[in-house]
Amino acid sequence: MNDTLDALDQLILKELTRDARLGWSELAARAGVSAPTVRDRVRRLEDTGLIQGFVAELSPRALGYGLEAIVRFKPFPGKVHILADRIIATDRIVQCDKVTGEDAFVARMLLRDIAELDGLLEPFTAHASTQTAIVKSSPVPMRPPPLIE
Question: Which of 47, 73, 89, 100 would bridge 128 by S-S if both were Cys, CB 3.0 to 4.6 A apart?
């Protein structure tokens, strides 16, 4: 897909990753083209799957979650699918990757405080062993992939 990205597409993508709430007129002014041109470009980028959506980013801290934990799940034999279903159904798990190695899943879990960690992990004890690390800071938060120029 990146072979078909011209300088205008790249500029539009950079501006939208900085502020996805930009209106057509403002985005067009920043790109130096008309609003209909920008609208058509963004729709094409959506149609090709390069832009997958626009979301509001919520603050876990403002919602009362003071801690974040990284939880590594090592499933017991025959429990991978049950474990995966349980992870998906747990709303405090806000991100999870299926990975190679002994730990089949690595997840990010939100906590109000450390006291609730054991209770949140309890439903998983019949399906996996866990290793947990508390996040101290995130020097590189989730960011968009770099554009290949």
Answer: 73
Cβ contact 128:84 at 8 Å: no
Tell me the C-alpha to C-alpha distance, in Å, between residue 20 and each of 11, 15, 77: 13, 8, 44
36 sits in which H/E element? helix 35-47
36's tokens: 């209909």
The encoded tokens of residue 103 equal 């730990």
Digit-by-digit pLDDT tens for the chain (149 residues) are 556 789 999 999 999 999 999 999 999 999 999 999 999 999 999 999 999 999 888 999 999 999 999 999 999 999 999 999 999 999 999 999 999 999 999 999 999 999 999 999 999 999 999 999 999 999 998 888 888 76
> Whole domain around residue 129: which residue ranges?
67-134
State the CATH number of the domain containing residue 127: 3.30.70.920
Cα separation of 74 and 103, whole Å?
4
Buried residues in 63-86 as b, exposed as e (16+ CB within 10 A): eebebbbebbbebeeebbeebbeb
